[in-house]
Amino acid sequence: MKVQANRPRGAWRIFRWPLVLALVSIIGLTAALIGDGWLDLVSWLALGVTLVVMVAAWWGRPRRL
Predict the structure, then answer these.
(1) Sequence-separated (6 or more) residues with CB below 8 Å from residue 32
(2) What is the pLDDT of residues 7-61, one digit of tens each?
(3) Residue 55: closest CA among 21, 16, 20
(4) Can you count the helices (H) and strands (E) in the chain?
């Protein structure tokens, strides 16, 4: 097993997935506000994906005693 040194990470590497989730959430909320019909589907999918990713990350984190 390789042990990596504690190197500083760049801002893009740290914040890329939170930024992607924020963008998907904004698209979903905007679609829900401005549209009807197929935009309802877009909003449900976008907000659902965000929720699923958040729950999966919460369940996948290591537990501390």
Answers:
(1) 39, 40, 43, 47
(2) 777 888 889 999 999 999 999 999 999 989 999 999 999 999 999 998 998 888 7
(3) 21
(4) 2, 0
